[in-house]
Design a protein that fits this description.
Blueprint (H helix, E strand, L loop, with lengths): L1 H17 L10 E2 L4 H12 L9 E2 L1 E2 H13 L6 H14 L17 E5 L3 E5 L2 E6 L3 E16 L2 E16 L2 E12 L18 E2 L7 E14 L2 E8 L2 E2 L16 E11 L2 E15 L5 E2 L5 E2 L2 E16 L2 E12 L14 H8 L7 E10 L5 E11 L13 E11 L6 E10 L14 E2 L2 E2 L8 E10 L5 E13 L19 E17 L2 E14 L7 H8 L6 E12 L2
Antiparallel strand pairs: 1-3, 2-13, 4-5, 5-6, 6-7, 7-8, 7-30, 8-9, 9-11, 10-11, 11-12, 12-14, 14-15, 15-18, 16-17, 18-19, 19-20, 20-21, 21-22, 22-23, 23-26, 24-25, 26-27, 27-28, 28-29, 29-30
Length: 565
């Protein structure tokens, strides 16, 4: 009887959600690897035409459409190139905004098959699209190829699959599957790279390199001022133009309950509870089958994180949040509460025993001066006031500071500068099941601890869809410290020795010739070095942190084509 009453309450809550909003809301995340639309929204925000929270990605398709519609109201403030960009993206995202009608059927251009007003099959954008007064559906192919050439070395990365989403009223369902093959593995957990990580299958059918598959998707319920969903996806937290410091988004996707609330203009809450993959064997649950096979079982591992964003004035966003990695227990209900300070809860639940792994973070984004974006992210792994001012000790902090100047003094041009510094043992933990990782990939900044980076870029956009970028990256990593019981981790010196260094100057051209489809060319002159430190030679660190083909002084030419992300 008690169980029946609980079920009735749950059904009642679900019914309440279903009737909460009269307006249809479609909340399907748009991959933050789709840099072109994200750069355009950032450009509009820097001109104070739209408002975005750059600390949390991905954005939903409905939010992107909202920004585009707001930009349409300020069309006279846009340059000719920006107006063409706006029209280009309105054609794509306007599909979800026209009630009961497929907007792609308005024009026969780009349509192979048109069954107006509801159905079309075409390549502007590429895919199959259907919409009526109740149901919306979109199916797009995913395919891409990228070749890296350095002297006689060639690396080929190919991928293929499909993405689809459907929506009925306020409920959206989406899925994206990509199978990848690389002739040389480019994104091992140890590598200092911003390439997407994957769980590789090595030497499949005798082929060199490795394969990995990435499946993202979920079910999302959205209303006018929020959304909640059960998804398996990637996310990026922390304002940046060259690597986020809170959650980088380069790890394999994991399942999570995700909540976003925007009840007023001056406040936004983002929260998720995720099921991470520990890859730590649970010997008590692992067993040998009757057929003689050993069944390995990993220990459970979870994460809870929130980020509360306050907007005291137009153009200023201040975000504060915290997270906790926990394991060796069932899902803890206290960590399902979105607005909690999880470290305090941890002290209650694990009194006088080993605590879980908690973090805090702050993000500041300022767009008060037209065309100028100033920002900073502070990630705190561990903090003590007694360390402040002590030259022999440090807090476990990662800091990022940056600025971007857009469309001034030269239109269609932006200049970016970003500096990141991360102290020793940030993102690390002594307990293998509570590390800041999933599938052994670090969740935080791609350079991890005891490192720094200077990044600068000049972007020129001479016409719609085309980007020309010149950039410079200077990154260093210091001693690789083991974080174990008994060491004084706060006394480990920052960058006592340099173990790895990367100086790269590159020129990139990219053209979005149809929606979500790019032609790409990059020419990079890089110098990636290792050093003889701590009993290891330079080659040890090169092999540890860098793919073989990118080591040393190299001129690397990369060309690619992709449809979808």
């Amino acid at each position: 009887m008690h169980t029946l009453k609980q079920l009735q309450k749950i059904l009642g809550v679900i019914l309440l959600l279903l009737v909460w909003s009269n307006a249809n809301t479609q909340d399907v995340p748009v991959s933050f690897r789709n840099e072109a639309i994200y750069d355009f929204l950032d450009e509009l925000a820097n001109s104070r035409i739209v408002n975005i929270n750059s600390a949390v990605k991905p954005y939903s398709n409905s939010f992107i459409l909202q920004c585009l519609n707001n930009a349409e109201k300020s069309r006279e403030q846009l340059s000719t190139r920006q107006q063409k960009e706006l029209d280009f993206y309105l054609r794509q995202y306007g599909f979800i905004g026209v009630k009961g009608k497929n907007s792609y059927t308005d024009s026969k251009r780009g349509n192979l098959i048109t069954k107006g007003p509801n159905f079309n099959l075409g390549f502007l954008p590429l895919g199959m699209h259907y919409k009526d007064s109740l149901f919306s559906f979109s199916l797009k192919p995913i395919w891409g190829v990228r070749e890296y050439a350095s002297g006689s070395n060639r690396i080929m990365h190919t991928w293929g699959g499909a993405e689809a989403w459907g929506s009925i009223g306020n409920i959206s369902i989406y899925a994206s599957l990509r199978d990848n093959y690389q002739t040389e593995i480019l994104a091992k957990p140890e590598y200092f790279t911003q390439s997407e990580g994957g769980n590789y299958k090595v030497s499949v059918q005798g082929r060199k390199g490795g394969d990995f598959s990435e499946m993202r998707g979920g079910v999302v319920y959205g209303w006018k001022w929020g959304s909640i969903g059960l998804v398996k996806d990637q996310l990026e937290w922390g304002t940046n133009y060259h690597g986020a410091s809170i959650f980088s988004g380069r790890t394999p996707s994991f399942a999570m309950i995700k909540l976003q609330l925007k009840p007023v203009k001056w406040f936004e809450l983002n929260y998720y509870h995720g099921w991470l993959v520990s890859e730590v064997v649970d010997s008590s649950l692992s067993y040998t089958t009757t057929g003689g096979d050993f069944r390995t079982v990993f220990r459970d591992k979870y994460i809870a994180a929130n980020l509360m964003t306050f907007i005291p004035f137009r153009g200023i966003s201040f975000s504060v949040g915290n997270s906790i990695i926990y394991s060796d227990t069932k899902v803890q209900p206290a960590y399902l509460i979105p607005i909690m300070f999880y470290k305090s809860i941890d002290h209650t639940l694990n009194h006088d025993i080993e605590n879980q792994n908690s973090q805090m973070f702050f993000d500041l984004s300022i767009r008060r001066i037209n065309n100028l974006h100033l920002y900073s992210t502070i990630f705190i792994d561990e903090f003590s006031i007694t360390r402040v001012g002590d030259s022999k000790r440090h807090n476990f902090i990662s800091q990022k500071y940056g600025a971007r100047l857009s469309n001034w003094p030269i239109r269609n041009t932006s200049i970016t500068f970003e500096y990141t510094k991360t102290n020793p043992v940030v993102y690390k933990h002594r307990i293998p099941t509570t590390t800041f990782e999933t599938n052994t990939f670090n969740l935080g900044h791609y350079l991890r601890d005891n490192s720094d980076e200077i990044y600068g870029a000049i972007d020129v956009r001479p016409f719609r869809g085309f980007l020309l970028r010149a950039d410079l990256t200077y990154a260093r990593h210091g001693n690789e410290y083991a974080y174990t019981t008994g060491i004084k981790a706060d006394e480990l010196p920052f960058m006592k020795d340099i173990t790895w260094q990367n100086l790269t100057v590159s020129l990139t051209s990219r053209w979005e010739f149809i929606h979500d489809s790019w032609l790409y060319l990059n020419i990079a002159q890089s110098s990636i070095k290792g050093y003889n430190v701590d009993g290891h030679n330079a080659q040890y660190y090169l092999d540890l942190y860098t793919p073989k083909s990118f080591q040393g002084d190299k001129l690397i030419v990369t060309a690619g084509l992709n449809f979808g992300f």
